Each structure stands twice: as structure tokens, then as C-alpha cells.
């Protein structure tokens, strides 16, 4: 008598849900591009760090994972080999990269040349900037950008002097809020043509001179 086949053994559950697997070290660019669809954040972070990730996809991932993109070991080579594609990254992506404390100078250069103003604003908002970068920002045509730079903690004495005579009163107003203004700049701003600046400077006490009489 033939034995009837029994019920099929249940399949073992997968060790990882679809879309949660990290990319293989040798994953191709096409595989990486497919992997990101619906992937959770930890997978997207891994793709942003993968040396085979296409440069266009890196630009998209930079919006949410800027630190991971900057850590990508292929980025220095892509910067040279596919510079045009990197220059085409969105202003938001470049702004997010430029705002990272560890972002190299070339990323700041990329942001300063980007047509989207938010990329330049990201550079101006950095906690630490070199003096040449501050000089570059100080010469920018957007007065709002100069006003932001006027409040930067690393501003040199020369730039403080320059901003104190800026043609746009909004820049001088921003400068007047600094607690470290030298006496000569304070005196100049106390007689500024704009009343808002003079009013703000009323909160600054003039330094004592002479015998104190």
C-alpha cells in the first residue's frame, strides 16, 4: 500500500526582513540603487558609506545622512572623477554636508559656489570657520549673509572694523549685538545714523577712561 505524503514541513522564517539586509562589501552600484527602496535608516546609512554607491544616489542620501556620505571612502576619488555630478547635487544636500563639523574645506567651497543660497548659509552658520572663509563671506553681496557673519565668534578685528561701516544698516545692527566690540567701534556705532543701532548700543556701557571723574 502506498504511503500518502505528509504535510510539507513549515519553512523557517528568514533571519532578516526584506529590505533590511545590509549591502554586501562587493555589492554593485545597481544592487545598491535597488536596495534603498523602502529600506530602513540603518540600511540607508550603510549604502551612503558604501564605495560602490552611485554618485547621484550619494547626493540624495546626503540630505538625511550627510556624515555617512562624508565618510564614504570613495568620495575623494568621486570628487575628482565625477566633479560635475557632485556640483549638480541639490542645494539642500550640499547645505547638509557643509554644516557637518568635520566637513573638509572643499565641501565649503562647493557650497559657496552653489546657486542655491541655503548652501552658503550653511557655511556661514558653522561654529568654526577659517579667516579666509570669513573674509570670503564678508565680501558676499547678500547683506543678510554678511549680517550672520558679523555675529560669528571667530571674527577678526579687521572684519569687525569693516562691518562697523557696512553700507547696509542690518549688518551694523547685527554687529552691534556683539559683546566684544572694541571701544572705537562702540563709539562709532553709538553715533550711527540709524536709530535702532543707537538704541541697541545704549545697553553697552562706555569703558572708564582717565581718572574716572
From TrEMBL:
Task: Name the residue ranges with Low complexity bias.
Answer: 1-19
**Region of interest: Disordered:** 1-23
What's one Pfam family here? LRV
Q: What InterPro entries does the record tag this protein with?
A: ARM-like (IPR011989), ARM-type_fold (IPR016024), LRR_variant (IPR004830)
Q: Report the protein name in the record.
A: Leucine rich repeat variant
Please give the organism: Deinococcus aerolatus
Amino acid at each position: 500500500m502506498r504511503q500518502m505524503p505528509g504535510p510539507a514541513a513549515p519553512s523557517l522564517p528568514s533571519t532578516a526582513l526584506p529590505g533590511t539586509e545590509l549591502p554586501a562589501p562587493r555589492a554593485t552600484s545597481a544592487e545598491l540603487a535597488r536596495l534603498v527602496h523602502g529600506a530602513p535608516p540603518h540600511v540607508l546609512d550603510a549604502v551612503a558609506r558604501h564605495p560602490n554607491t552611485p554618485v547621484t544616489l550619494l547626493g540624495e542620501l546626503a540630505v538625511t545622512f550627510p556624515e555617512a556620505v562624508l565618510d564614504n571612502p570613495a568620495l575623494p576619488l568621486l570628487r575628482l572623477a565625477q566633479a560635475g555630478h557632485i556640483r549638480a547635487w541639490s542645494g539642500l544636500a550640499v547645505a547638509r554636508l557643509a554644516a557637518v563639523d568635520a566637513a573638509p574645506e572643499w565641501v565649503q567651497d562647493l557650497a559657496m559656489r552653489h546657486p542655491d543660497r541655503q548652501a552658503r548659509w550653511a557655511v556661514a552658520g558653522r561654529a568654526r570657520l577659517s579667516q579666509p572663509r570669513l573674509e570670503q563671506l564678508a565680501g558676499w553681496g547678500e547683506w543678510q549673509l554678511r549680517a550672520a557673519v558679523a555675529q560669528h565668534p571667530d571674527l577678526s578685528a579687521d572684519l569687525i572694523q569693516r562691518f562697523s561701516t557696512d553700507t547696509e544698516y542690518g549688518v551694523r545692527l547685527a554687529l552691534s549685538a556683539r559683546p566684544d566690540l572694541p571701544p572705537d567701534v562702540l563709539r562709532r556705532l553709538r553715533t550711527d545714523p540709524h536709530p535702532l543701532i543707537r538704541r541697541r548700543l545704549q545697553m553697552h556701557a562706555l569703558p572708564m577712561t582717565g581718572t574716572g571723574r
